[in-house]
Design goal:
2 domains, 105 residues, mainly alpha
Length: 105
């Protein structure tokens, strides 16, 4: 399963995935205290491609060019690059995922 940078599978679902080769799937979610539909949903979410992958690349590139100087005030405007505006909260969350810090000024 593909895994995004910050999306984690709940411990119950991880245990089910590991034991799936040894036991029947029908019994595992109940034993782990998780609904089978919830387990399948978690697997589907982890298999989905990262919808912010392109934006993360742009944020990383702009952050490197500006040495982190412009991000607190103007980061979301620069990251949009003339496209549809990107919410500043989204940019901040992605920066945290990427381990980037912004400075004002």
């Amino acid at each position: 399963m593909a895994q995004s940078s910050k999306i984690h599978m709940p411990p119950e679902a991880r245990i089910i995935s590991e034991l799936r080769s040894e036991f029947r799937l029908e019994n595992l979610p109940q034993a782990a205290g998780m609904a089978r539909s919830t387990y399948h949903y978690q697997c589907k979410v982890l298999a989905a491609p990262d919808r912010h992958a392109e934006l993360k690349v742009r944020i990383q590139a702009i952050h490197e060019q500006s040495a982190g100087a412009i991000w607190l005030l103007k980061g979301h405007r620069c990251a949009s690059g003339g496209r549809a505006p990107i919410d500043g909260k989204t940019v901040r969350r992605l920066m945290l995922e990427l381990g980037l810090e912004g400075r004002s000024g």
